[in-house]
UniProtKB/TrEMBL annotation:
One Pfam family it belongs to: DAO
Any one GO CC term of the record: cytoplasm
Key word Mitochondrion present: no
GO molecular function, one term: oxidoreductase activity
Listed name of the protein: FAD-dependent oxidoreductase
Keyword Nucleus assigned: no
Length: 435
């Protein structure tokens, strides 16, 4: 471990947990019956529970750990309006007309989060400050003009191109070859956003059973039997909302999502003049590399939260922190010498077509596959799934489709991820050198 980059009080845990650390809730009695059982107490699960409750349908949420222990309290807290949905898949497999419904509904996902925060007065450091996507190479920059046009037309993204000579207006770095801004984007404190959802569920007496995994799901004539270590529940419907933590209880869904570790570091509090050089307009940031990085200032503007695919697979976040530190100082040389107070990891759920999915598999509802857009997409898909069960949908969500691809050689074991990482790094090097 390169101890020189860590503060003396460094913590190998999420920075966000300083404000809200997931903890077990008081034990609730499991009902014998429930109209809906939701497996997974993250963004998707709680959004589904809130909407079901609003429609007068009783439900219970089960979680194998503490509510929010997974990606919902570990992510970067960036919220976009469709810019990240199906990036490579759409570019290769869809026409603009085919892509439009997905981008439109992804824009609705942004609206859902923003409206929910405002309506329920969730104090989570919400900043609608826009998003800058840095072009890794000139060919990536050249392709952005068409993407801006499509985003503005279908997702009302308020997007525009930023040429290299004006890049410093958006980001305190010369690292990229220009980029684009998406005005309809923001960032928040992910753990406090989750806490807001949890508080709403508790205020509305929605039962949440922590440390209560679903161990077996059995389809019955009228619905489902959900077995847990504490007993069984007869349910009319089941929603699987486990995303990057989907396990063996749903093997057919486990083989359709690929959990990938995403790694994040937080700097110590920076001097105000130094912090001001990083993000002149308080944007959130990402780039077009295959080995993605993403970052933003903390809600109070005092430290940089910097994340990325430091390694493919799952490893100790302390081991990956020096890699992220190198990525960070490549982009911001002015941060050399600044130290890290926190380093952590959480699972992102990728799908084989790089698209989020909701729907039914063998009569079981699911909302899975955020592909790195979890705050907006998982919240939205949970909400939409609940509306579908309640019979309140105004239109069929674009992400609600029968196709949810799998692969004959993938059963949930991610042994191949390091090889994909090597391939991506090679492609990134070639793009930077020749693109």
């Amino acid at each position: 471990m390169n101890s020189a980059i860590f503060t003396k009080d460094f913590k190998p845990r999420p920075f966000w947990w300083e404000a809200h650390e997931p903890k077990p809730l008081p034990e609730v009695d499991l009902p014998k019956q429930a109209r809906v059982v939701i497996v997974g107490a993250g963004y998707a699960g709680l959004n589904a529970a809130l909407e079901l409750n609003r429609e007068g349908l009783d439900c219970i949420v089960l979680d194998a750990n503490e509510p929010g222990f997974g990606g919902s309290s570990r992510n970067g807290g960036m919220v976009s309006g469709g810019v990240n949905v199906g990036k490579r898949y759409m570019a290769k497999a869809m026409s603009d007309a085919e892509a439009a419904p997905f981008l439109n509904d992804a824009a609705d996902a942004f609206s859902h989060v923003e409206t929910l925060i405002a309506r329920e007065n969730i104090d989570c450091g919400w900043h609608r400050a826009g998003y800058f996507l840095g072009a890794w190479c000139k060919s990536h920059y050249d392709s952005m003009a068409h993407k801006v046009e499509l985003l503005n037309e279908t997702a009302k993204s308020e997007a525009y191109i930023v040429p290299p000579e004006r890049q410093r207006e958006e980001i305190g770095s010369d690292y990229y070859r220009g980029g684009m801004v998406v005005g309809r984007a923001g960032h928040l404190h992910p753990a406090l956003f989750f806490k807001g959802l949890l508080d709403l569920c508790q205020q509305r007496n929605i039962p949440i059973a922590t440390k209560t995994p679903a161990t077996k799901l059995t389809q019955t004539g009228s619905g489902w039997r959900v077995d847990t270590p504490r007993g069984s529940i007869e349910a009319g419907d089941v929603i699987i909302a486990t995303n990057g933590y989907t396990g063996d209880v749903t093997p057919e869904l486990k083989r359709r999502v690929v959990p990938v570790g995403s790694y994040i570091i937080a700097t110590e509090e920076l001097p105000p003049d130094l912090a001001a050089t990083i993000s002149p307009k308080n944007r959130s940031f990402a780039d077009t590399r295959r080995v993605l990085t993403y970052y933003r200032m903390s809600p109070d503007g005092r430290r940089l939260i910097f994340g990325g695919r430091a390694k493919f697979g799952h490893t100790d976040p302390v081991e990956t922190a020096p890699i992220l530190y190198g990525f960070m100082t490549d982009r911001f040389p002015q941060l050399k010498g600044s130290k890290i107070t926190h380093a952590w990891t959480g699972n992102v759920a990728f799908t084989l077509d790089e698209m989020p999915h909701m729907g039914k598999f063998d009569n079981m509802h699911y909302a899975l596959g955020c592909n790195g857009s979890g705050v907006a997409m998982m919240s939205y898909l949970g909400h939409q799934t609940a509306r579908k069960i309640a019979g309140k949908v105004n239109h069929v969500c674009a992400f609600d489709r029968p196709e949810f691809p799998d692969h004959a050689l993938y059963t949930g074991n991610t042994w191949f991820l390091p090889w994909i990482g090597r391939y991506f790094r090679t492609r990134d090097w070639l793009d930077r050198r020749f693109g």
